[in-house]
Amino acid sequence: MFILTMIKRSILLIILATLTGCASHSSRKLNKEWTQDLRKDSFQNQFTGIMVFDPETQDTLFKSNADKYFIPASNTKIFTFYTSLEYLPEKVPSLKYNYDQDTLYIRGTGNPAFLHPDFSKQETLEFLNKFRYIKLSTDNFKEQSYGPGWAWDDYDYGYSAMRSSLPLYGNVVWLLPDHYPDFIPDVFPVYDSLPYSRRAPKENVYKVQNKRDDTLQIPFIPDTAAIAKILRKTISGELIMKDQLFMETPEIFYDQSRDSILKKMMLESDNFIAEQLLLMSAETVLDTMTTRKIIDHVLNNSLSGLKQKPRWVDGSGLSRYNLFTPESMVYVLLQLYKKYSFEQLQKFFPAGGESGTLKNNFKSSTTPYIYAKSGSLSNNYNLSGYLITESGRVLIFSFMNNHYREATTTVKYNMEQMFEYLRSNY
Questions:
Q1: Which pLDDT does position 182 carry in this prediction?
Q2: Containing H/E element for 134?
Q3: Counting C-beta atoms within 10 Å of the first and last residue's C-beta, which end of the chain has fewer, N or C?
Q4: What is the spatial distance between Cα 289 and Cα 282, in angstroms, rounded to a whole number?
Q5: Phi and psi angles of residue 403, each rounded to the nearest 5 degrees, phi first
Q6: Which has more confidence, 15 or 100?
């Protein structure tokens, strides 16, 4: 029996040694090939950082500037995704409330799905309609409506919606092809001849756009007047706005599925949802709707193992103040990989050539081999996530490109060539 056990152990060690040797050989080939690629002219006039990690062998297969800081753009949403899974319940909080007979006292919790057209089931609205009087205060919103470092002249673009404690319709008006020329919600003045292109800079006055085949979203300013206008046209009861509300022990009303909100954020790279998810996480964990405080909490607790502490200022990555390293991206992706099955994670990450922001990219295979989050700003394109090799291995990677001047399509093409080599040779 002893001899048989020793033989089995020897065979196992031989197999492990063979696999390790193959992996080491593949890693050496990868290092040689990719090092040569990065010396090509196309990479010389930009800043590039890469890390590839094998979670099964715990080997770093390739590193180049992996510990250097990059502007991550929407790769920031990977950290927001991690935070939301870590701290939000499976059904997200939608309201904090008390009630007295036919009067409901409420504050928002930052839920971005309330009245949002992409979320058909609206349990929060059904709950509000049970009461004759609704008394609402937004006094718990202690944050700036815009994130630090956001571009001021993006104010009338849908990707730059303002943050708030009680979002309505995603804090944008929707101009739908089948409702042209009417906006939804239709509570703001709309004209067809004004000096601005979409919305007045400091008020909720809009210009009708030319008829389009797709949906146009334009942010509104979510001040108390706008909130009151929208809700009074939406709910059945009487709305009373309050400067302050006292709730000693508020109850919490839960509404949308956390995962459905996360899927929309990750697949479509929805900036507004990302921002609100951080605010909801802060409200849930720290009882304060402050982005800075939840970021500090995450970095000092569940992500305290990061070797390079990021400069992390918002949930979406709209700000160029954000600075992350490829190694930090891989670290968070590894934590997700350890805690959740890869099959679960695949549902959230855009699949190359198939879904989300990668639907038209990285599609050289009959089935997706890349599941990753992209991040784009002018002169920056980053991609971090998971890659499936032809041998069936799942690898974690972060490939960050900053400060290039050529077309982003060229950057993506160069990345795809390198990814295909990795897929075929490991």
A1: 87
A2: strand 133-136
A3: N
A4: 5
A5: 70, 30
A6: 100
Dist CA 195 CA 214 (whole Å) = 23
Average pLDDT, the chain: 94
Query: In this predicted model, what pLDDT tens digit does every residue of 68-90 receive, in sequence order?
Result: 999 999 999 999 999 999 999 99
Beta strand 47-54 pairing with 394-402:
antiparallel
Residue 17 has a pLDDT of 52
Q: What is the pLDDT of residue 363?
A: 85
Amino acid at 391: S
Q: Is 362 helix (H, G, I), strand (E, B) or coil?
A: coil
Quote the pLDDT of residue 149: 97
Judge if the upstream peptide bond of residue 189 is cis by omega within 30 degrees of 0.
Answer: no
Band the pLDDT of 372: cuts 50, 70, 90. Answer: very high
The domain ranges of the chain are 30-81+291-425, 82-286
In sequence order, what are the residues at sequence separation of 6 or more whose Cβ sits closer than 8 angstroms to the Cβ of residue 27? 59, 61, 62, 426
Query: Quick check: pTM over 0.70?
Result: yes
Task: Tell me the per-residue pLDDT of 264-316, one tens digit each, with 9 for 90 and over.
Answer: 999 999 999 999 999 999 999 999 999 999 999 999 999 999 999 999 999 99
- CATH number for the region 30-81+291-425 comes to 3.40.710.10
Closest Cα to residue 317, out of 148, 167, 85, 109? 148
- DSSP annotation string for 285-339: HHSSB-HHHHHHHHHHTTTTT-SS--B---SSS--TT-BB-HHHHHHHHHHHHHH
Helix or strand holding residue 172 (H, E): strand 172-175
What letter represents residue 118's amino acid?
Answer: D
288 CB-near residues (< 8 Å, 6+ apart): 140, 142, 282
In terms of C-beta distances under 8 Å and separation of at least 24 residues, what long-range contacts does 282-286 make, across chains too?
Answer: 283/93, 283/109, 283/110, 283/140, 284/87, 284/88, 284/89, 284/93, 284/109, 285/87
Give the residue, 77 or 11, on which the prediction is more confident. 77
How far apart, in whole angstroms, are the C-alpha atoms of residue 268 and residue 80? Answer: 14
385's torsion region: left (phi>0), alpha (psi -120 to 50) or beta?
left
**H or E stretch at 91:** strand 91-100
In this predicted structure, what is the pLDDT of residue 14?
A: 53
Helix (H) or strand (E) holding 206, with range, is strand 206-207
Q: How confident is the model at residue 7 (pLDDT cuts 50, 70, 90)?
A: low
Of all helices (H) and strands (E), which one includes residue 184? strand 183-184
Please tell me the distance from the alpha carbon of residue 246 to that of residue 146, in angstroms, as a whole number: 27
Q: At what angle do helices 258-268 and 271-286 cross, to 10 degrees?
A: 140
